[in-house]
Amino acid sequence: MAHLINEKQQEVNELLPGQQSYAKIDDQIGSMILDQKRHPKIWYIMLGFGFLGANLLLVSIAWLVYMGIGVWGNNQPVGWGFDIINFVWWIGIGHAGTLISAVLLLLRQQWRNSINRFAEAMTIFAVMCAGLYPLLHTGRPWVAYWLFPYPNVLAMWPQFRSPLIWDVFAVSTYATVSILFWFIGLIPDFATMRDKTKKASVAKIWGMLALGWRGSAKHWHRYEQAYLILAGLSTPLVLSVHSIVSLDFAVSIVPGWNVTLFPPYFVAGAVFAGFAMVLTFAIPMRKWYGLEDLITEKHLDWMAKIMLTTGLIVFYGYLCEVFFAWYSGVIWEMAIIQNRFTGPYAWAFWSLWFCNGLAPQILWSPKMRANKLVLFTVCQLVSIGMWLERFVIIPVSLHRDYLPSSWGMYYPTIWDFAFFAGTIGFFIFLMFLFMRFLPVINIFEMKDLVFKKSHDHSHDHDHLLSASGAKGDE
Amino acid sequence: MSKTLEHSEVGHHDHDEPVFYGVVAEYDSGDKLMEAAEKAREGGYTQMDAFSPFPIHGMSEAIGFKCHKVPLSIFGAACVGAVVGLALQYYVSVIDYPLNVGGKPLFSWPSFIPVTYECTILLASLTAVFGMLAFNGFPKPYHPVFNTPNFDRATQDKFFLVLEDGEGFDAAKAESFLKGTGADNVTSVFADEAGAWSV
Question: Which of A165, A166, A223 has its CB closest to that of B55?
């Protein structure tokens, strides 16, 4: 038993280097909000950058709604272009957030504590960006509510056998549950902010958000029940969402799409892209705000390992696609693979293999994982690679199907690019607002780590066990 | 409880009269709080609550609190979500708007699984969060315990134990008991006004 305790302690110590105390945690995280002077110049630069992007998004939406989706490069046969590529890309990015929050909570991985809050925020913002695409792709977003089943005067109901309706349910449920998960995690931290601030007017705002939270053991009891079950609910949810997104393709008969591999392969790809994005924000943020003690090298290392693992799964998927096409003996399937290798979009295919297949292999080396510049670069390549993956799946499969007479090419227009750049700007804008105005790291869960660390020198092992919840391990 | 009611009535008639809420002790560590709570339960105190900036496992057992309302209601909501989700699709696809799609049967249930599943999760999750808030009695911005000196530290770095007023409750006895548990401060806490704070 003592051996187990030592191992646990060591892990906690590695996750929380430096002499931490409850008050120091409050100060480190809380001061990002309460001490508005703490924000470096880079915050303004990034926010300004994001603000421009958000405006570009507004202009693109306005022009699209005014002119119709003809301003996009979608055509026949490629009816789905940038809109669905980017939809799937953004949804995928969101997935790391839920995964870090929910799956790692269920697995009692304490290293999640310092990254879950902003990963969850990332999820919500990514889903917001993702949701715009199918909404606007309908061409008449003002009647998008027709997608929901409600008793209406048209006497029309949605078609429940269509994967596109499954998407409506999956994505809206996912968005709702992500927001709930985020909010429930924030309540105790709102209370901390309420009690920590010295300005009465600010305290009022936090007080309203905290709903009267006072840290009662009875409340924590129900809170933890709800939080854990919510994690249990969102774990299969996150897998189902991306599986359903992949069924949009797999349920069709388009060569290159009609594959049973899609659900697991899409989910792995989503985690892959999601962790790349978490690292993209975590690496600079910890430096700008001096959070190195909270988001440690160890965290970055673990995330890099998850990226490597999911990257290998994704690459296995690519190999499987080639194998399936050959093994199925279906000429259209073989043709689509040949087209990927040598067709007009071969550049995308080979860049994809480089970005997602080759580049992440550098993460096998512990030295390279520890090098933040390398890690950051790999993350960027993975983000590009995952975008290319969806490009290869969507337009490249659509542009040549069964009948050569209906072949065509797909060229995105400037508005496709503007819209995409706009969502990225919008995402950055929201992320940087979040960093300034909400606790970016989960305060109460970090204190829980400190509490466990404080038992380091305790000889009362029995007590440690009962206090840290490890009773069940006995 | 009867004593609380009595006080409430007094408070109702006369707003200047503060209503006694309980005796609160402040500790500087979670371990001391846990020990004190265990001692208090052994000492026969039944109505108490502990306050800490983070959840301390085993604390609810220490104060003798057990509640399964949240998990049970989530389970109920999940069942309702599943039934409603499937029933909706059955009503739409079979009864109200039957369409022959690719020769599939009207009740082609395998294609109804995703929506049924999402409805289950949605209703269960909403119940998890709003059920938890409701059972905890939130939102409740005013509570007598907030009158405890230094209580703003309860969400930061201090730990509090309150022995609540009730039948046969002796405030003086409780105060001396708490002083013997390693508390930094022990105070009698009063509510500003009589109100319902039972949750």
Answer: A223
A310 has a pLDDT exceeding 90:
yes
C-beta atoms of B71 and A176 within 8 A: no
d(CA A471, CA A465): 5
Instruction: Summarize pLDDT for A203-246 with one digit per residue, the tens.
Output: 888 889 989 898 898 999 999 999 999 989 988 898 899 899 89
Contacts of B43 (CB under 8 A, 6+ apart): B177
Say yes or no: A346 contacts chain B, CB-CB below 8 A. no
Task: Please give the pLDDT value at position A2.
Answer: 54
- Residue B48, strand partner residues: B163
The answer to whether residues A447 and A24 touch, using CB atoms and an 8 Å cutoff, is: no
Strands B159-164 and B48-51: antiparallel
- Chain mean position to CA A437: 20
> How many angstroms separate the CA atoms of B137 and B130, rounded?
10
H or E segment and range at residue B190: strand B185-191
Determine the residue of chain B that is closest to A470 in CA distance: B57
Between CA A185 and CA A444, with CA B49 as vertex, the angle to 5 degrees is 25
Strand order in the sheet with B48-51: B48-51, B159-164, B19-27, B185-191
Cα A393 vs. chain centroid, distance in angstroms? 20
Asked whether the beta carbons of B145 and B162 are under 8 A apart, the reply is: yes
Put residue B103 in one of left, alpha, beta given phi > 0 → left and psi -120 to 50 → alpha.
left
The closest alpha carbon to B52, from B27, B22, B23, belongs to B27
B143-161: per-residue pLDDT in tens? 888 888 888 888 888 899 8
Q: Nearest C-alpha of chain B: how many angstroms from A446?
A: 9
Contact at CB, A196 and B136, closer than 8 angstroms: no
Asked if residue B168 has pLDDT above 80, the reply is no
CA dist A11 to A123, A447, A459, B16, Å? 27, 15, 18, 55
- Dist CA A458 CA A397 (whole Å): 62
| CA A28 remoteness from chain centre | 25
What ipTM was predicted for this assembly? 0.86
CB of A216 within 8 Å of any CB in chain B?
yes
Contact at 8 Å (CB) between A396 and A345?
Answer: yes
The answer for residues whose C-beta is within 8 angstroms of residue A73's C-beta and 6 or more apart is A81, A82, A410, A411, A412, A413, A416
Count the residues in chain B. Answer: 199
Phi-psi bin for A161: left (phi > 0), alpha (psi -120 to 50), beta? alpha
What chain B residue is nearest to A206 in terms of C-alpha separation? B141
- Nearest residue in chain A measured CA to CA from B114: A166
Pick the residue of A162, A206, A229, A468 with the most B CBs within 10 A to test the interface with B by mutation.
Answer: A229
Answer for the pair B58, B34: CB distance below 8 angstroms, yes or no.
Answer: yes
Greater confidence (A30 vs B108) lies with B108
